[in-house]
Amino acid sequence: MPLMEGIEDSLGAGHVSTLLCDGRGDPIREQHYITELLNRRVDGIVVTGRRTDVRPSLGPLPVPVVYVLIRSAASSDLSVTYDDHQGTELAINHLLAAGRKDIAYVGGPERHQATRTRREATDHALATVGLTLKPTDVLIGEWSEAWGRAAAALVAKRPQGQRVDGVFCASDQIARGVVDGMRDAGIAVPEETSVVGFDNWDVMAEASRPPLTTVDPCLAKLGEFAASQLLNAIEGRELGSGTLLLPCELVVRDSSVPVLTRHAEAASVA
Questions:
Q1: What domains sit in the chain, N to C, each tagged with a CATH number?
Q2: What tens digit of pLDDT does each residue of 15-71 get?
């Protein structure tokens, strides 16, 4: 929804009406909608999806097309998405700044691009400071709170001296489950283990106990930017091609840094 809001805000500012079609991942349904939209003589099309995975191109169309969040397999198309590597490095660098050195990565299904990319970026960020992500600290499962709780239980079973002191989760759903699982195991978050998620999904992040520090992919800004590129093309400017990566932001809450520490840092800055 934040992505769609950003698209509508940008197009609305240009006095352009928006039609929403849900292809539901069905190529036949999608082709039907494309035909209908072209019959209605739309000026341009924004293609999106639930994830940052690569999808087949719609091919040459008589109107400009921009892919946002999801990416086109054709390098001749313009795709706009967020920078997974940069967002992950924000999370890992934050954990390192909090004094965490034994960090685990808890991701979703391996088949998803986000899981693989965030793991690779975690490896890279740790390597720059001479640390490594041990194989036993890579936990791959599902995009769910239940998997987060299960992953936390696996970590908690380790002997005291072998437990991780920081966990980066590839989604807020997983991170909330990890926080709950740590609490169930008697491990204090963030005093003993810091937890950082990804998505800044406020329903998950703010309702977590404690609230989640998380990477915000800034979906509304992503939608606004993609739609602005489409408007430029509609007005006759060159659309461009390839993949544009927009930066993420880190939203710091209580799951990564003790509240007293955060207040002390704020006071020293003031």
A1: 2-83+218-248 (3.40.50.2300), 84-216+251-269 (3.40.50.2300)
A2: 788 888 888 888 899 999 999 999 999 999 999 988 888 999 998 999 999 999 999
pLDDT for 204 equals 93
Sign of torsion, CA 152 155 157 159? negative
- The DSSP output letter for 123 is H
**77, 241 contact by CB (below 8 A):** yes
Residues linked to residue 103 through DSSP beta bridges, in sequence order: 166
CA terminus-to-terminus distance, the chain: 36
Output phi, psi for 266, to 5 deg: -65, -40
- In DSSP notation, 31-88 reads HHHHHHHHHTT-S-EEE--SSS-EE------SS-EEEESSEES-TTSEEEEE-HHHHH
3-class secondary-structure state, position 71: strand
The answer to whether 108 and 142 are in contact (CB under 8 A) is: yes
From residue 256, give the alpha-carbon distance in Å to each of 93, 101, 105, 165, 191. 12, 13, 15, 10, 8
Burial 163-188 (b: 16+ CB within 10 A, else e): bbbbbbbbbbbbbbbbbbbbeeeebe
Are the CB atoms for 224 and 10 separated by under 8 Å?
yes
